[in-house]
Predict the 3D structure of the following.
Amino acid sequence: MRTTGRLHLGHYFGTLRNWIKLQDEYDCYYMASDLHALTTEYADTSKITENIFEMVTDWLTVGLDPEKSVIFKQSAVHDHSELFLILSMITPLGWLQRCPTYKEQIREIKNKDLNNYGFLGYPVLMAADIFLYKANLVPVGEDQLSHLEFTRELARRFNNFYGEVLVEPLELLSESAKVPGIDGKKMSKSYGNSIFLGETDDVIKEKVKNMFTDPLKIKKDDHGHPDGCVVIKFYEIFSKGSDKYPSFNQKEKDCKAGDIGCSICKKQLTEMLSDFMKPLAEKRKTIISDKAYLEKVVIEGSKKAEEYAHKTMTEIHKALKF
Ligand code: SF4
C-alpha cells in the first residue's frame, strides 16, 4: 500500500478487512510502499516517514498482527530497487504505455507533473515487489487485474531469457465493499471527501451532515430517490447484521414512499459511524503514542522481509550469471 498517510473507510472496506482475514490463512507480507509514494510525491518528501507511521498505525488498529504477518517498509529492503532496475532492462516500453491505470492517472492527476520515468515504470516496481517474495497469490481488486497480467507476462519474459526463477502470481479476488466519499465520488484523500479511521464524534457528525442526499427530497413526505444518495450507501454497509436500526431494504422503501426524512437517516448513520469508530479511535491513540513500538514493528518486519528477498536476489544473480 502506498504510503499516503492516514487511511479512510474506503481503504478499510476495500482492502484492510480482507487483509485481516488473510493473515489467518496464508503467510502474508504487507508492505508500506514508500518508493511507490515517491513516483508521485517526489517533489516533497517531508511527510514520507510520518505517513509510514500513520499508515502502519491504522493497519495495527484494525487488526493486522505483526506476530502473524510480515509488516515492512519497501525502501528498507534494497532488493526492491535492484530488481526494479533489472526488470526495467527487459520491459518493453509498449507494455507500460498501454497500462490502463497509467493512462487513467495521467488523465486525472492534473496538479502534478507525472511525465517521469519512475511513474511510467511503477508496474515494474510492483512486479519486483511480488517476485521477491515468490508470492503465488496477490489480493487485488478487479481494477488491478491488468497489473497482475503484466506481472505474469514479465515473469514469463524473464524466465524465458534466464531460466525459471520468477513465480507467476495469481489474483486472490475477494469480497470488498465500495464506500463513496461524502460527495458521492470515489473516497480519496486528494478529493477531500474522506472519513478517516478513528475519526472523532464531532468530525463524524459534521461529515455526515455534509453528505450528499437526494436534492429533490426537501420535506419528509417528498418521495425520495435513494439511488443517488450517499447516506444510504453508507447505511447499507453499516446496518448489516444490526437489529438496532431498520434494514437497508426497509430504509429504501421508506425513502421512496416519503415516510422518512433525511435528518433521521443522517442521525442514525452518525450513531452507527460513531459506534464503529469509538474503539478504533481509542486503540489508534494508544498505538500512535508508542513510537518505539511502531518502529520496532517496522524494523523487525523489514528484517524478515529482507531475509526472504535476499534469497530470491541470490537466485536472480545466479540466473543472470552475475
Ligand atoms: Fe437518502 Fe435517507 Fe434522504 Fe432518502 S431519506 S434521500 S435515503 S438520506
Q: What stands out?
A: The first strand starts at residue 29 and ends at 32. The chain has a mean pLDDT of 94.
